Automatic annotation (TrEMBL):
Coiled coil: none
Cross-referenced InterPro entries: DoxX, DoxX-like_oxidoreductase
Protein name stated in the entry: Putative oxidoreductase
Record key words, sorted: Cell membrane, Membrane, Transmembrane, Transmembrane helix
Amino acid sequence: MTIAASIKTAQHAHQRLIELVQRYLAGDALKLLARLTLAGVFWRSLLTKVQTVGVFPYTEMINDFAVQRAYLRLPEFPLSLKASTLALFETEYALPLLPIEVAAWMATLAEFSLPILLVLGVMTRLSALALLGMTVVIQIFVYPDAWWSTHALWVVMTAFVAGSGPGRLSVDHWAGRYFAR
């Protein structure tokens, strides 16, 4: 095989790989993955702020001690803030102009509702923009040194979801098709 033929074969393989990636990853699957990942980040933050209930409990032995765990944790209803959440908003998360309880509840309710909307693909662009705003506030007022370690990734995900929309695997898409009739 000549060098020219080898290069031609490599170009063809490269083109085929690009076509496969575009077909299976660049479209709706990537948009869904971005929505789920972004929702997961903020949902996990919610679970640190409120009382939770374990679903599918199990017992794990750690150093001969039985520790109760759960495969899934969900917020306990009605939502109630942990005392540690208010303490964090009083010290580490202190925001200018907002009372502690108002800021804590705003963040908690956003972290509760916006991930649910993202997973379902309801008001997706607006939800992503709200999380982008929240990320900017966290970056400026709470953790200004966390840009490269965390917030840059959140900004890219929120911008991607807000800019590209939810994709066909969303309520937004199906509602748009239904109401466009």
